[in-house]
Amino acid sequence: MAVDLTPDPSVAQLAQRTAQFVRQVVVPVEERERGVARSEEVRVELQRAAREAGVFAPHVSAEFGGHGLDMRGRAAVFEEAGYSLLGPLALNIAAPDEGNMHMLEAIATEEQKERYLRPLAAGEVRSCFAMTEPAPGAGSDPAALTTRAERVPGGWRIDGRKWFITGAEGAGFAICMARTAGEPGDAGGATMFLVDADNPGMKTVRHIETLDESLYGGHIELLFDGCVVPDEAVLGEVDQGFRYAQVRLGPARMTHCMRWLGIARRAQDIAVARAAERRLFGSRLGDLGMVQQMIADNEIDIAAARGLITQACWELDQGGHASQSVSIAKTFCAEAVWRVVDRALQICGSLGVSGDILLSRFLREVRPFRIYDGPSETHRWSIARRVLREHDKTAGR
């Protein structure tokens, strides 16, 4: 079956309006804030402007105030939003909220949607996804999950430690993954729970200092200590948490790629403008062969990344898990975006290293993407295993 690369006219129009909004409204705020929104006032300011521009929450259904974009539609719009570090926050499509909205819309009960999804989609609250744990707990291997939930009268008691929980500072609720059956290392036995921020059993341990700073709400270490939640806090079915996580993780990996591709384009635009204007050795910087090679390699990386994103999104839109295509796209994009930003900084020289433009901030922000949502090494291992399994199947082994 052929992959259709032609965007729907309504999607193309929304992407165009998003691009205009980001350049005219968001980029000036980004430059003023040096790429990091450190206050609720900035978030509220940007999201109010996005609503007024008609580009807010494009991924959720019309029932919850959005445009109901499929994955291919999101690819076009999210890339334009990602042209600024603050664009995703403005459109309410930043991690982890965007992935949580996707999952809530897919598996939450109607009551849970009204209580959690509706205010989240409206930007009235934020959320976090509490799965990752300190070693030897869940990380690249979710099956290593050690946080436990035990039945108590009327609900569940959650105990465990989570770390690197993006967006947890100031979040209205967490989606916590806890083991309800089996032992660490078992492939099943996890359950997702909705935990309100005012639950006394969920405590902030510390704000983790990291290379990146633009993801709103930081990266937090959380302690679940006698955290009691009612039965209606279970998201989906008991013991099916790992299966439900796939509803979130594949699309979320792709939306990360879409957003960071926008930053790669921004870095390329900055570098090309510099190469066209800067003169040295008697000619434009852009007329030098080595600089032209870097510009060309950036274009190749951007185009290849977009193509891999489109392929994976098309497969997801057909209802498949697209596991192989998602892993390939995520691995390539994470590394390609780094290469693009790094080359752009090199082209700009001392200006790129300086704080006068945001390239050095972009470089710090994109580097962790090779670790977040599964390290490149883990994805390569998964890709190779699938290839070998297919070979063995074909060979009749």
Automatic annotation (TrEMBL):
Residues 239-388 form the Acyl-CoA dehydrogenase/oxidase C-terminal domain. One of its GO terms (molecular function) is flavin adenine dinucleotide binding. InterPro entries: Acyl-CoA_dehydrogenase, Acyl-CoA_DH_CS, Acyl-CoA_Oxase/DH_mid-dom, Acyl-CoA_Oxase/DH_mid-dom_sf, AcylCo_DH-like_C, AcylCo_DH/oxidase_C, AcylCoA_DH/ox_N, AcylCoA_DH/ox_N_sf. GO terms for cellular component: cytoplasm. Residues 128-209 form the Acyl-CoA oxidase/dehydrogenase middle domain. Its cofactor is FAD. Homodimer. This is Acyl-CoA dehydrogenase. It comes from Thermomonospora echinospora. The lineage of its organism: Bacteria, Bacillati, Actinomycetota, Actinomycetes, Streptosporangiales.
